[in-house]
Amino acid sequence: MSSLFPALADGPRERVALRFGERSSTYGELAGAAGALARRLGGTGRVAVWATPELETAVAVTGALLAGAAAVPLNPRSGEKELAHILADSAPALVLAAPGAALPPVFAGLPRLDVDASAAGPLPEEHAADGDPALIVYTSGTTGPPKGAVLPRRALATTLDALADAWQWTGDDVLVHGLPLFHVHGLVLGVLGPLRRGGSVRHLGRFGPEGVTRELNDGATMLFGVPTMYHRLAEALPDDPALAAALGRARLLVSGSAALPVHDHERILAATGRRVIERYGMTETLMNTSVRADGEARAGTVGVPLPGVELRLVEEDGTELAARDGESVGEIQVRGANLFTEYLNRPDATAAAFTEDGWFRTGDMAVRERDGYVRIVGRKATDLIKSGGYKIGAGEIENALLEHPGVREAAVTGEPDADLGERIVAWIVPADPGAPPTTEELAGHVARRLAPHKRPRVVRLLDALPRNDMGKIMKRALADV
């Protein structure tokens, strides 16, 4: 196949490719460092990468891909039990890490290779095929030990080229973000994406409004973030005119990894004149849909299928849902070259994830508008509530609750009810803990905005919602609260 990173060989050698804080690497320097590492990894099948948010991680993954090896990015905040499972399951030949990085005892016995970001060596010839593994990314493991999704090289190229089409992404773009590098969002989109285009990425290290303002004022054109980050920006905007002006200069503001509440969309638009666009993907599928740069940025939707992605909604019995009425709920299934090939060492889980004709069962529930826009209403396992004969998505109720001035954060789940089947439960972090909104007040608020059958029957107050590293609410943990 053609190179994943043609700019390493053919791009302007003096253009900055990567910047992490005060440290940076031009395309010429990255080609030398990644090329030198690739030659040391020649013939290695699989390598673990201690994915700290620094320059060496980007060099490590780039070098592994140039060598034709499969990289296994590891979350440095994972516990030893999870790390032990991933290492045993993926069986890497060695671990790549930044010099001086302290690795947990679970790595004892596994060879370590420190990544030299200043090394110089020629680029190797790339012989890997389209279907060869590029990354093995472990899922969050909410229903058991994490599973390793094997992402082939064609999936990376397909997704990044489709996003270039949808977002009009070119080598002139400078991306800024503060996302972790052990996940698809921060690593594939946030690092490999700019490198494939021949553009630049500036990683903030620690995300904050000050860093966003600084980089957008210094020529950055795109910002990637998760809803928690955009919520922090929305909260800061009323008292920070410099941030509002900087966001207003961005060419593209992109949110992903979870739904961005409509309330935050509206606050950012009002303060900056810029709309945040959303996209939808998974570890197993990379990116499936997006609002296009030349399309309508409609709050609460994830746009239309990307080029090369087939998408359908299906009923519980597997029949395709033909309605595009913005109301009929079905499970999203996708098919295309962007998909993973298997769960490593889990043929049973791989077979269960696909239909007989090759559609991947995402487990995400959505509706489609008349013009094809997709609006996700939640996960099948945790966000689809069957109450009083209705199928209700938790996401739209959460958005409605967040429009109430007394609500700072909201999550919605279902719990068994003898009469309704399931009743709707709202988990609320109040804006003023001393004067939280009542159940009756919130039920009426939702009923007026959506429909009476979508109102919460129970309200439970919390100091904070449980979230994972990507800012997603961990709804299964609410049962233990």
The secondary structure category is alpha/beta
Overall outline: globular
Count of helix runs: 14
Question: Could you please say which CATH topology of the domain at 6-186 applies here?
Answer: Rossmann fold
CATH superfamily of the domain at 6-186: ANL, N-terminal domain
CATH class type of the domain at 6-186: Alpha Beta
Count of individual beta strands: 25
| Biggest sheet: strand arrangement | 2-1-10-9-11-12-13-14-15
Strand fraction: 25-35%
Low-confidence stretches: none
Can you name the CATH architecture of the domain at 6-186? 3-Layer(aba) Sandwich
Largest sheet composition: 9 strands, mixed
Task: Kindly provide the radius of gyration, computed on alpha-carbon positions and rounded to a whole number of angstroms.
Answer: 22 Å
Cα end-to-end separation: 50 Å
Question: Mean of the pLDDT scores?
Answer: 92
Q: Helicity level, as a percent range?
A: 25-40%
Protein name: Acyl-CoA synthetase
Family: Belongs to the ATP-dependent AMP-binding enzyme family.
Pfam family, one: AMP-binding_C
InterPro entries: AMP-bd_C (IPR025110), AMP-bd_C_sf (IPR045851), AMP-binding_CS (IPR020845), AMP-dep_synth/lig_dom (IPR000873), ANL_N_sf (IPR042099)
